[in-house]
Specification:
The protein has 267 residues and is mostly loops. It contains 2 helices and 2 strands, in the order ααββ. A two-stranded parallel sheet has the order 1-2. It is elongated, with a radius of gyration of 19 Å. The chain starts with 8 loop residues before the first helix and ends in a 122-residue tail after the last strand. The relative contact order is 0.10.
Length: 267
């Protein structure tokens, strides 16, 4: 096997985030707009004419608490930006770079994050203790490594997303996404890669898990009641106490013969 030892999720994220922010601080002057200019653009927006910040470099800016609802941020860079308690409901962030962004209490409900990058986002530390919200968000094709225990991702679409570990990019030790206790009820994960993710006691009720890679994922106590697991791969996943009641495609799922604690699943 010869796999590297995992750093603790919060430690790994903090280390990488620190490096990301140290790099971004050198490019703060390169941001296309100042904080005041962003505020003005948002203040002048209306429901019929949302703010257009598409393609803008907003990296390393403190945009805490701002209202980006329905704003167009397609292809924008929010690298290392502070977005604490900012409102991105129904905003367009397709292809946006949010690597290393501070997302404590940030609301992405209904936002379009298609193929956005959320590597080593910061959700721990500081005065705000609330997890970001991704309820009903379009997360198709996203690349994400994040600590999101208990977060609300219900109804989100993670089709073909890369949330699992990238073995080729682990020079600092393997880092993995923590979705322990997160709400993914009714979410779509079809074709996504969640390998090695921490998903203990995760709510996956009624989710579309067709073709998902759960290789070595920690799914102990997760609730998959009513989910569709057709062609999902559970090879070497920990399934201690995992609930598979009324699931669809159970006979077509893969890797049960090589899963850990398969004898302890609940059906």
């Amino acid at each position: 096997m010869n796999e590297q030892i995992f750093l603790g999720p919060s430690i790994a994220t903090a280390v990488v985030a620190a490096l990301l922010l140290s790099v971004s601080s050198t490019s703060a002057a390169a941001a296309d707009l100042s904080i005041d200019q962003v505020r003005t653009a948002l203040a002048n927006a209306s429901p019929s004419a949302p703010a257009d910040l598409a393609g803008k470099d907003l990296s390393d800016l403190d945009l805490t608490g701002l209202d980006f609802r329905k704003a167009n941020l397609r292809g924008a860079s929010l690298f290392g930006s502070k977005l604490v308690q900012s409102d991105f409901r129904d905003a367009t962030l397709e292809g946006a770079n949010l690597n290393g962004a501070w997302l404590m209490g940030t609301d992405f409900t209904g936002a379009n994050l298609d193929h956005a990058s959320l590597l080593s986002v910061v959700v721990l530390g500081g005065d705000v203790k609330k997890m970001p919200i991704f309820k009903r968000a379009n997360m198709r094709g996203v690349k994400m490594i994040a600590d999101l225990p208990g977060a609300d991702l219900s109804g989100a679409d993670f089709s073909r997303a890369m949330v699992g570990v990238n073995i080729k990019n682990q020079g600092m030790g393997q880092m993995r996404t923590d979705l322990s206790g997160a709400n993914l009820a009714g979410a779509t994960l079809s074709g996504a890669d969640f390998n090695r993710s921490l998903m203990r006691f995760c709510n996956l009720k009624g989710s579309n898990l067709r073709g998902v890679s759960f290789f070595r994922a920690k799914l102990g106590g997760a609730d998959l009641t009513g989910a569709d697991v057709t062609a999902a791969d559970f090879t070497e996943a920990d399934l201690s106490g995992t609930i598979f009641r009324d699931v669809k495609g159970f006979a077509d799922a893969k890797g049960f013969d090589r899963a850990e604690n398969f004898d302890k699943i609940v059906r």
